[in-house]
Amino acid sequence: MNALPASVRVVEVGPRDGLQNEREFVPTATKRELIARLAAAGLRSIEATAFVSPKWVPQMADAAELLRTLQRTTGVDYPVLTPNLAGFEAALAAGATEVAVFAAASESFSRRNVNCSIAGSLARFVPIMEAARDAGVRVRGYVSCVLGCPYEGAVAPGRVRDVAAALYDGGCYEVSLGDTIGTGTPLATARLVACVAERVPTHCLAGHFHDTYGMAIANIYAALQSGVAVFDASVAGLGGCPYAPGASGNVATEDLVYLLDGLGIDSGIDLEALMDCAVWISERLGRRPASRVTLARRGCA
Ligand code: HMG
Ligand code: MG
């Protein structure tokens, strides 16, 4: 067991992972304001949108307009998802300075999510990595289904390790391990991190936990003890994955910050401002926040 880190970087994925599954189109102006409010609350990495096919994910159809018209805050990164070179080129033209590529540890999920095999998706990233290097754009990598697949069930840690290693060796500065359907538990998380760390240094790993089974905070604690110091989270616990039936949102950013505050770990995030943001976006979407902390503190339980 490692000593807990003194600070953690939180990657806010609400505007992308959180909103991608919304049925009603969320106006671009609302997305822009959400991102501005997150930056004002202290988030320094905010995944803004995805340059994916609008036929596959209609909610992200305004990616170029959104990225072009973002009010950027100095010191904040706004990564965007790019599944292929077409997406990367569109992102670059709209002003992207950081992108994320995404692969899966399960063949069935890969086919449903990006319409090709794991190897095929990794091959698509090669020209992206080259173009990104030329343009001075940083590339983050994701591996989905690291602790279970909605179509195949259990996923062996060694398969996750191999895909994570391919992303890292290909030039990703960080690899985020996605428990897409939230079935992970703390011991499985610790074993997974130990296995992936055989090929990717722990300081280059991030945890991306969906909270479908209520395990996200416990898994984050296990990952912290395993030396991981970067976590993805979604304000108000927004989200779900269009290709993972039944998946709920990521761990709520408020719940993660509450945990970190309680552990004395610095995240640079103002919990009160973050809860204001969570209540604001939840009102816009016509639902209660999924964050236990926001529900308890703001009396909307
Ligand atoms: P395809 O149908 O095989 O691609 O989709 P294609 O190359 O045959 O193109 C089909 C059409 O899409 C064409 O348009 C292309 O121009 C267009 P048409 O000629 O039919 O009018 N197209 C694009 N349009 C905009 N941007 C692009 C793009 N590429 C092609 N980049 C493709 C393959 C990868 C495009 C598709 O499967 C796709 O967009 N998938 C994205 C799925 C997605 O966004 N899933 C959610 C994100 S992953 C996730 O949530 C997991 C994560 O959170 C971690 C975790 O929780 O585990 C990251
Ligand atoms: Mg996700």
Molecular structure report:
By secondary structure, the protein is α/β, with parallel strands linked by helices. It has one domain (9-298): Alpha-Beta Barrel (TIM Barrel). Helices cover 42% and strands 13% of the residues. The chain is built from twelve helices and nine strands. It has a nine-stranded parallel β-sheet. Helix 7 links the parallel strand 6 (138-144) and strand 7 (174-179). Helix 2 (28-40) runs antiparallel to helix 11, helix 8 (186-196) packs across helix 9 and helix 10 (253-263) packs antiparallel against helix 11 (271-285). 3-hydroxy-3-methylglutaryl-coenzyme A (HMG) binds next to helix 4, helix 5 and strand 6. 3-hydroxy-3-methylglutaryl-coenzyme A binds next to helix 4, helix 5 and strand 6.
List keywords for this structure.
301 residues, alpha/beta, TIM Barrel, 12 helices, 9 strands, 42% helix, binds 3-hydroxy-3-methylglutaryl-coenzyme A, binds magnesium ion
Q: What is the mean pLDDT?
A: 96
CATH class identity = Alpha Beta
CA-atom Rg in angstroms: 17 Å
Q: What would CATH call the homologous superfamily?
A: Aldolase class I
What is the 3D shape?
A: globular
Major sheet: 9 strands, parallel
E-strand count: 9
How far is the N terminus from the C terminus? 36 Å
User: What is the number of domains?
Assistant: 1
Oligomer: single chain
| Low-confidence runs of at least 5 consecutive residues | none
Q: What structural class should be given to the helix and strand makeup?
A: alpha/beta
CATH architecture: Alpha-Beta Barrel
Strand content: 5-15%
Count of runs of 4 or more consecutive helical residues? 12
CATH-defined topology: TIM Barrel
